[in-house]
User: Fold Chaperone protein DnaJ from Tissierella carlieri.
Amino acid sequence: MRDYYEILGLNKDASEDEIKKAYRSLAKKYHPDLNPDNKEAEAKFKEANAAYEILSDPEKRSRYDRFGHAGVDPQAGGFGEGFGGFGDIFEDIFDIFGGGGFSRGSRKTGPVRGADLRYNLNLEFKEAVFGVEREIQVRRTENCETCGGTGAKSGTGKETCSTCKGRGEVRYAQQTPFGQFVRTSTCDVCNGTGEIIKDKCNTCGGSGKEIKTKKMKVKIPAGVDTGSIISMREEGEAGDRGGPNGDLYIYINVAEDPIFKRSGNNIYLTVPISFTEAALGAEIQVPTLEGITNHTIQEGTQTGTEFRLKNMGVPNLKGYGRGDLFFTVEVKVPTKLTDRQKELLRDFANETGENIKEHKKGFFDKVKDAFN
Assistant:
C-alpha cells in the first residue's frame, strides 16, 4: 500500500491547507465523471480519497505518522506494525489500570464539498466557431429553501443525540489480557452527526436537500470544438454542513457542417469550377465562415489545386488570432455534350496539336519504367 503523503504529493510536515489543496486537485483530475470508463483514474480517485480521509483528520493522521497504515487499519487491532513497540503502542491504545479508550473513528461534522456534475451540450458548427450564449437546465440537489438546509421544521432545530451524547460515535468496552479495550463506531441513530431531528421539515423530509431544475445561461467562447470542457464553479450539487457546491462541467459536442471541414483552427472545403474557368481563368465565388467572397484563379488551373485565405479560419480559443481557410478546386467535366460541343472540342484538340493516343502511350511508358 502506497504512502498517503506520497499519494497526495506532500511532505510529512504539510499543513491542513496544503492537504486540502492537494486532495482537491487530484479529486478534480481523476473524478469518475470526468474520466468515464477509465479504471486507472477511478483507482487514483479512490486512492486520493483514502489518503485524504486519514490525513485530514488530526487524530488519524497522528496515528498514521506513528504507526503507518496499521495505525489506521480497522483490521490491525490497534497494534501498529508488528509487536516490537508494545510500550508505546499500549500507551496510546490501552489504559491497563484505568480502562482508557481507543477511538477507531471520528465524528465527521466538518463541511463537505458537493459532488461535481456533467452536462453534455450540442452546438451547431458556426456556434462553436464564433461563440454563443445558450440557456441550459440542470437537475441538481440544492439546500432546502423551507428549512435553509437544516432539515428541521420551521421554528424547531436539531437536538443532541441521546444515544451518543452528541459525540457522533458510541463506545463498546471489551476486556483483554492487557486491560480494557474500548472500541468505537459511528452512532447509527444520528449517523455520526451527534444531532437528531425530531420535527422534520415537511418539504425535504429532514434531508435538508431538494432536487431542483436550475436554468442558467452559459457563454460559449469562440473556437470551442468537440471535446472542449467548460467549467462553472460551484454550480454542481449542494455541499453538506455548510460545504461549498461542487462544480459543473459542460462537455461540448459540435455537429458536422455539410461544406466546411475543421482541423484545429483551419477550415477546409472543395470548390467546383467548370472546365472553361479552369482553362481560361476566372473570378470564382468561395464560401467562407462569414459569407461568400470572390477569388481569382489563373488560367490553366488544374483540378486539386489548393488555395489559402489567411485569417479566415476559426478564432483561437485563447482569444488571439485565427486559423486559415484552405479551398481546393475540383474541375467538373461535362457529362452530356451536344454534337456541336463535341465537334468544337475535337477542333480544339486538333488546333492545339493534342494527340490523345500518343499522350496515353507516353503515360503508360512512364508507368512501365517505374516498375522495371
Q: What stands out?
A: The chain has a mean pLDDT of 83.
